[in-house]
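Reviewer 2 asked us to include a model.

Predict the structure of this chain.
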Amino acid sequence: RELALAEMLRLEGWRGTSREVCPRCTPTRRASPSVRCDDCCSNEVLCESCCVAKHTEHPFHRVKQWKGTFFQRTTLQALGLVMQIGHPSHEICPLPLPAPRSFMVLHTNGFHPMTLQFCQCNLARQAGSRYQQLLRAELFPSTVLDPSTCCTFRLMEHFHLLTLQSKISAYDYYHTLAKLTDNAGLIKPYDRLKPFLRMVRQWRHLKMLKRAGRGHHPDGPKMTRPGELCVVCPACPNPQVNLPDNWETASDDIKYLYTVVVALDANFRLRRRAISNEMRDPALGSGWGYFVEDNRYRGYLQDRTEDDEISTCTGFAALMSANSKFTKGYATSGVIVAIDARHGFVLPNGIGDLQKGERYSNVDYVTGAMWGLLPPDMRRVISYDIVCQWAVNFASRAKMLPEHIRLDVPTGNDLRYAIPKFHFRAHKHDNHDQYSLHFMPGVGRVDGEEIERNWSRHNQVAYSTREMGPGSRHDTLEDHFGFANWQKFIGIGPTLKRRLKDASIEKVAQDRIYDDFRHHLQAENVRTWTDAVLAWEKDPTLPSPYCIPSSGITEAEVKARLLEEDAEAAEEDGPNADQVSPAAMLIALFDMEEQQRRFKAKYPRQSSGQPQRTAAVVQKRRSLQLRITKLRLLQAAYMPIVPQLLARRHRLPHAEELAEDEMLFFPSQLRADNLFACTPGIVEIEERLREGQLHDALDKLRLHLHIKTRLITFKDRNVRNQVANTRARGRIDANEIKVKASASKYRRAREAKLALAGPGDWENKWRVLRDTDVRTMKGDIVEDSAVLAGAGIPSSAPSADSEGRRKTSWIWLSADVTDEGNPSGMNNALRVEFLKARARCHRFTEEICHIREEQRRTFVSLEKDALRWDTRVFAPHQSDASVREGLAAYSAEQANLRRCLVQTY
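Predicted model (structure tokens):
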């Protein structure tokens, strides 16, 4: 630290250079050095003349001059530097034309007052007008006539990329330049903010024209068509670019590959105050990019100022008021945007301003404008968070749009409507499955939420654009949307590769789950459910097979079932000592094991680990011990080795076992040499009993998990006050105890069967039950922290997988039952879960096919785009040879860029 600090201070002085003679002066001319450049790589201090000569080709460096005790900031203009343009370097114009005395150049390192001279000698025709001379010197002028402020091209490039990446405003950037020039405020500030804003806006527009190839077109920018300046997606289907010739006759099995998925959404952060107007501040190319053409759009909306807002769907009730709030003083309350939902590209003419809320007229117009620029005759899916309301009369409203965007809305599979996956849960559940992207055939894994992911970046621009005029705001937002599209354009190859890898891995898991379902379910149910969902996919107006009837298990049924189980727990009579078979003895052992479990659940140990010893508990423990002692007499008849083992155990130097912890000595707990002394066949009897115990424990586990789902759903939908919430939570906690008990019973039974039968094929049916396997059909249900803590789940545990990636626990794969044995609607839940597993499997299969087709289309699109730039190398409409040379070089550069992108993919 001390060393670095010392070296930084050293740089404030002469840095070890000579103070006597300028190192660049000739032997015939010796001058004292006094000027140092902060931007040159060398540390030398020069005289004024040598410094000016050295910076003829570096006129925008910052210099300091020695003032006897320190170096003070000065300018090259003050040292006598004159910048001559219109001539080659070091060539003097015989007839120079001075620029205004207040001429200022803005560079990346600050403001530079400049003595500049134009050329008006005989070479002026070659040098061009003053405006042209500045541009050829890579100085961007603020005005066409008599400019007094310029920005270097390097500054324009630096700010342009910086604002697109970091979202810094032009205001902040300008004042950063001012601080670089004078951070102490001692110099009178230069007032060049308005010219700078004007230059930035012009630069944005010119770059869009240049990248779209309008400079290569004979008609120039004036004949630009709507949406032509946009960066379009190379992976989306376009019959004129990347589709095979026979795509229209493709079979229905692959027809879904030629579907365009569009996502609509409103953003109320991108507002604009009532500043200026369209006459004073028009857009530089209205309708050429992402915004719709402004004059026609406003003319259409003038007659529809009383249109209603869209959303009335439950879950979005607050949207109407939220959209309408805080609009006073704003001319624009937000934007409606349409994007390509699979890849996130903002669509040409896919943006329109909102005046107040989300009105049908705004959304319809933008949809019509965007629709007309999409490839014709393509299947379409429109995803919109309130599509269930907007789509109802869209076909009739589309016929009332202006003639240039009027639509004849298709029906059937040619146009389907969807709700984004995240927003779907906030809607009513009745008759909404037809809008679910989880269940919609042919859409793959698209979620419709890509448009929401865009807002996190674009919302950062809102603070600066809301203070702009209408045209400036449009031009700025179009530039940012174009940059976002470009980033997706150059990154689409790696993106598709990553998605293909993820989808391939997930498809294997989902295929396995779906195959397990089909293997374990009854064949008749599989056929019936599959036929139902196929019919629904063809005609979504049919009843949805994904909907569970509301006549399932009720709260009263749950209470009755819990009371019935409690009654079973009260049966604690032991067996008769006479006429007891080996099977009856083992059954008695099984009952005793269950009694021990219930005793421990009812009277758990204290927090210190000590057992409870109240009078009532002691009495219950003594009664349990008596029943165990009575059972030992029966056990000794068929397992004579047990009294010997008990005697050995009692001689061990450890504390006396409590009745609830006493080992019962099942055959599965004995060594092989001890089993020889037992009654033959007793091992087989226990194995059969364990098999039944496994079946019963797994059935009860599924039942209590199903009850858990219904209890939590009932609580979330109906319970509001504190008293009812406490009661509902108590029922959930009580059911959770039974879930744990069933899981523990299954694990004990499996351990016993493994000890008796050893490893084998039976393990495929009775698998190891992990904690992560004990979950409902819908996965882990998010509950309040108290319930989670009661279940042993930390409150910070991650939420369950999304519906599209959810993996059903193996415990449900063999849960199929007949209608006669249907436990409180579990069969309906099983049907829905089977169909969801089928949908997940199909969506991942479609996703892989989509991605592979998109990769092919991307390669074809880039190659054709490169060929299109190749044809622009020749520009016969340009008479200037230098301009033709520049056009050819830029065309070749763009063609090479696209071919390089193909190679990186």
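The two ends are 46 Å apart (CA to CA). Confidence is low (pLDDT under 50) at residues 317-322, 550-559, 781-800, 817-822. We have added this to the supplementary material.
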